[in-house]
Design a protein that fits this description.
The chain contains two helices and no strands. The chain is an all-alpha fold. It has one domain. It is rod-shaped and about 70 Å long. The two termini are about 25 Å apart. The mean pLDDT is about 85.
């Protein structure tokens, strides 16, 4: 069953929130500047949501690595 567009968008947002926290922590560990770390993670939050959404929609159209579902027998009574 194919995913709806809003499912892809919610997945993109939830994944990017997780990734942005990671980016902020790594940036802070390198620079010791919370303002800079939050700025970097804030920018990449929005750009990567768009990229992930587009990536997800392209993969939704590909049959690569999918198992075809067997047709269920219908019983007409």
């Amino acid at each position: 069953m194919p995913d709806k567009h809003y499912r892809s968008l919610v997945k993109a947002v939830s994944w990017r929130l997780t990734g942005s926290v990671d980016t902020a922590i790594i940036t802070w560990l390198i620079t010791h500047q919370w303002k800079f770390a939050l700025m970097v993670s804030g920018v990449e939050l929005f750009t990567k949501i768009g990229l992930y959404y587009a990536h997800e929609r392209v993969w939704e159209k590909l049959s690569f690595g999918r198992v075809k579902e067997a047709k269920k027998p219908s019983f007409d009574i």
